[in-house]
Amino acid sequence: MGDLSLAVFMFPVLFVLVFAGIPVALSLIATAFLFGVVEFGMILPTQFHSRLFDVTSNFVLAAIPLFVFMGAMLERAGIAARLFEAIKIWFGALRGGLAITTIIMCGIFAASSGVVGAVEIVVGLMAVPAMLGAGYKKDLAAGTVCAGGSLGTTIPPSVVIIVYASITEMSVGDLFAGILIPAGVLVGLFLVYIVGRCLLHPDAGPGLTDIDDRVPLSGKLWLALTALLPASLLVLAVLGSIFAGIAAPTEAAAVGALGSVMLAIAYGQFSFRVMKEAATQTIKITAMVMMIVLGGILFASVFIIHGGDDLVSQIVEGTGLGPAGIVVIFLIVVFILGFVLDWISVLIIVLPIADPIIRAADIDPLWFGVMVCIILQTSYLTPPMAPSIFYLRSIAPKEITYIDMYKGVAPFVVAQLLTLALVALYPATATWLPEILFSGF
Questions:
Q1: Which of 53, 168, 272, 329 keeps 20 to 30 A from 373, CA to CA?
Q2: pLDDT per position as a tens digit, 214-234
Q3: Number of helices and strands (H, E) in the chain?
Q4: What's the pLDDT tens digit per position in 53-110?
Q5: pLDDT score of 21
Q6: 216: alpha, beta or left? (left if phi > 0; alpha if psi -120 to 50)
Q7: Do 298 and 51 form a contact (C-beta atoms < 8 A)?
Q8: What is the chain's Cα-based Rg?
Q9: What residues have CB less than 8 Å from 230, skipping those under 6 apart?
C-alpha cells in the first residue's frame, strides 16, 4: 500500500496540468509517472509497459476504430448528405421541420458512427446553413445542432458506452440495450420541445414552402428507399447482430465497417481518396481515444496503489446516505468533472473508483451506467467545457454568438435532466430491455 497523502494530491496536480494547457492524455500520464515513481522507483516503466499492452490488446476497445471508420466512410462518401436531404423532404414543410430533420439525422448518424463530436460537425455543416437560410431563430438552430450532436453519447454504438464497458468489465450488449429506451425518450423530448416552440412561436422555425410542390409523393418514397433504407439496414444489422447474440460488438463493428464500404461502392462514391480520408480520420480519433484511455488507466492504477480508492470508499460510507445517496454523489461528481474534462477522462478517472463501491452497495451497475452516460451527455452541453459549443463554433457563421448557443442548449439540457430523473425513478427503463433480450423473460 502506498502513501495515502500522495493519493490526495494526485487530483490537484492533474488539474493544474490540465488548466496549464497540457493535453489531458499527457497530464494523466505525467501525474501517474510522478506519483508512481515514488512507489515503484525505476521499475515503473516496466509496469507502464504492461498496462500499455493491456489497453492495446483489449478486444472490446478494438471495436472503436471499426465503428469510427463506419461513420467516417458514410460521411466522406456523401451518404450522410443524401440522408439529410431525404429526411428534409419528408419533414421540411412542417413548422420546425428542419430542426426535426436535424434531430432525426443526428440520431441515425449517431447509430452509424458512435463518435461524439463527429455527429455534430457532420450534421451541423448541413443543418446550420439550411435553418438560417429558412429564417430560423439563431438560438433554436444552434441548440438543435448541439443537442443532436450530444446523441452520440447515448445512442448505440456509442464509443462512450464501449469505453465504459471496457473499464467496468460489463457487457457491451447489456449497456447498448439498457440505453436504448432512455435514448428514445430523450429524442422524443427533443422533438416535443421543437414542435411545441414552433407551434407557439411560428417565426422561430418556419416551414419550407416549396417542399410539397417540388417533390411528388413518388419522389419522396424513392428517396426514402434509396437513402434511408440502406443506411437503416446497416445499423439494424450491426446492432441486431449484437442483441441477437450472433456477434460480439467488435465483430459487429467489422460488419458495419465493411457495410459502409459496400454502400459507398453501391452509390458510386467509393474512391482511393475517400478511403484515405476515412482511414486518416479513423486513425486520428482512435489514437486520441486510446491515449486518454491509457493515461486514465495509469492514473487510476497509481491512485489505487496509494490507497485512494479506500479513502473515497471511507468518505462515501461515512456520509451514511445509503445506496441512493451513493448514486447521487457519484452522478454529481461526474457532472462537475464534465464541466472541465472530456468524457473519456471523466470515465477513466471516476469508474475505477466508483464501480467497486457501487457493486458493494448492491446497486445495479447497469442502471448506474445508463445514468452516468446520460449525465455525461448533459455535461456535453453545459459550460465551461461544453464541447458541443466549441464544435459548433468551429463550423457556425459569426452571426451565431455564444449567447445564442448557450440560450439554445438550455431547453435541451432540461430534457436531458428529465430523462435522467425518469431513469432514476424507474430503473426498469434501463434494465427491462436487456432482461428481455439476454435473459429470456
A1: 53
A2: 667 677 777 777 777 787 888
A3: 22, 0
A4: 777 777 777 888 888 888 888 877 777 778 887 888 888 778 888 899 899 988 888 8
A5: 80
A6: beta
A7: yes
A8: 22
A9: 263, 266
- Grid cell at residue 93: 414543410
For residues 183 and 429, the answer to whether their CB atoms sit within 8 Å is: no
- Specify the amino acid at residue 35: F
Q: Which residue ranges make up each domain of the chain?
A: 58-270+307-439
Residue pair 40/302 in contact by the 8 Å Cβ criterion:
no
The helix or strand, by DSSP H or E, that contains position 123, with its residue range, turns out to be helix 118-133
Contacts of 184 (CB under 8 A, 6+ apart): none
**Contact yes or no for 142/105 (Cβ under 8 A):** no
What CA–CA distances, in Å, run from 311 to 197, 305, 317? Answer: 48, 11, 10
* In the predicted structure, residue 134 carries a pLDDT above the cut 90: no
pLDDT tens-digit series, residues 108-131: 888 776 666 777 887 888 888 888
Which range scores top for mean pLDDT: 133-137, 316-320, 393-397? 133-137
Q: Is the distance from CB of 287 to CB of 343 less than 8 angstroms?
A: no
Could you count the other beta carbons within 10 Å of the beta carbon of residue 384? 7
Q: Are 152 and 67 in contact (CB under 8 A)?
A: no
Distances (CA, A) of 411 to 17, 60, 343, 378, 389: 34, 35, 21, 11, 15
pLDDT single digits (tens) 170-196 = 988 899 999 999 999 999 999 999 999
Q: Is 157 left (phi over 0), alpha (psi -120 to 50) or beta?
A: beta
Residue whose entry in the numeric block shows the C-alpha cell 467489422? 254
Report the Cα 426 to chain-centroid distance in Å: 23
Q: How far is CA 157 from CA 62, 173, 320, in A?
A: 13, 10, 37
* Overall pTM surpassing 0.70 (yes/no): yes
Q: What is the pLDDT of residue 46?
A: 66
- Helix, strand, coil % over all residues of the chain, rounded to 5: 80, 0, 20
Joined grid coordinates for residue 204: 422561430
Q: Please report which confidence band the pLDDT of residue 441 belongs to, taking 50, 70 and 90 as the band edges.
A: very low
Query: CA nearest 67: which of 272, 275, 252, 270?
Result: 252
Report whether pLDDT(350) > 90: no
235 CB-near residues (< 8 Å, 6+ apart): 108, 111, 112, 256
Cell for 429? 427503463
Per-residue cell: 335: 457532472
